[in-house]
Amino acid sequence: MNQFSRTELLLGSEGMRRLAASRVAIFGVGGVGGYAAEALVRCGLGAIDLFDDDRICITNLNRQVIATRKTVGRYKVDAMSERLLEINPELRIETRKLFYLPETAPDVDLSVYDFIVDAVDTVSAKLELVVRAHELGVPIISAMGAGNKLDPTQLRVADIYDTRMCPLARVMRTELRKRHIPGLKVVYSTEPPRRTSDDPAVSCRYHCVCPPGTVRKCTIRRDIPGSTSFVPPAMGLIIASEIVRELAQ
After folding, report:
1. Number of CB atoms found within 10 A of residue 239's CB
2. E strand or H helix at 234, and its extent?
3. What pLDDT shows up at residue 60?
4. Contact 243, 157 (CB under 8 A)
5. CA-wise closest residue to 244 among 67, 38, 84
6. Pairing of strands 155-159, 185-189
7. Across the beta sheet with 115-118, what order do the strands follow?
8. Domain boundaries, the chain
9. Which of 95, 128, 135, 167 is the most buried if burial means most Cβ atoms within 10 Å?
10. For residue 127, which phi and psi values (nearest 5 degrees)?
11. What is the pLDDT of residue 197?
């Protein structure tokens, strides 16, 4: 018996061996990526690399697995690394305080991974990840928009070209066609995005809580999305389930 015995009942010893021998990269350790990372490690993944240059903000407490009053202000990759090693001390883990962008992409060797999780926010970063993964033949799964959604039962796994209702997926479809990318597995929501409150009393745009000197603030966005404690985590867990099933086959 070991900590993965219940999982082994479903995946078998060979499936567990394949998971233990696999290495996954998580780009974006937030509401989606954090839950995906933890679920993968709890299933017996052997190696994981975390990429994020963001710190935990008090507004992350509503949805991010690493966010507590004690971790506010810490780098997300550091808090996530500690948490994952408490789950499995034998986990092989690397952390990079880095935002994946076209200008930082050459610093990351994607060819070493068995699977890539795209849980970043920006279209430019997503496109760079997808194009490079496609060129290298590395499997990748992308999270589409989880903000401004309330119904986790409307989350779906599909090819990007078969999605509907998601504004982010629409933009990605257009850009991927231009780059001749034939397909991309994504998790998206069929729920129409809800309009956020325009009450300035609850807007980060008017009441920013980021420490002075913070470079990457959410206020740079044209529209700051609302979020919940259940839709982003559900998306992360679905991503993890897709990866486990593929790697353990």
Report:
1. 30
2. helix 231-247
3. 97
4. no
5. 38
6. antiparallel
7. 92-96, 47-51, 23-27, 115-118, 140-143, 185-189, 155-159
8. 5-247
9. 128
10. -60, -40
11. 66
Q: How many whole angstroms separate alpha carbon 77 and alpha carbon 83?
A: 10
* Cβ-based neighbour number of residue 155 at 10 Å: 20
CATH 1.10.390.10 assigned to domain 5-247? The reply is no
- Is 233 in contact with 67 (CB distance < 8 Å)? no
* 3-state DSSP assignment of residue 155: strand
Q: Which helix (H) or strand (E) holds 186?
A: strand 185-189
Distance CA 30, CA 80 (A): 10
Show the tokens assigned to 209. 């809580």
Structure tokens at 81: 């690394």
Compute the distance between CA of residue 148 and CA of residue 22 in angstroms, rounded to an integer: 34
pLDDT digits (tens, 9 = 90+) for 184-195: 999 999 999 988
For 6, other C-beta atoms within 10 Å of its C-beta total: 10
Q: How far apart are CA 209 and CA 188, in angstroms?
A: 29
3-state secondary structure of 104: coil
Between CA 164 and CA 169 the distance in angstroms is 8
Neighbour tally for 222: CB within 10 Å: 4
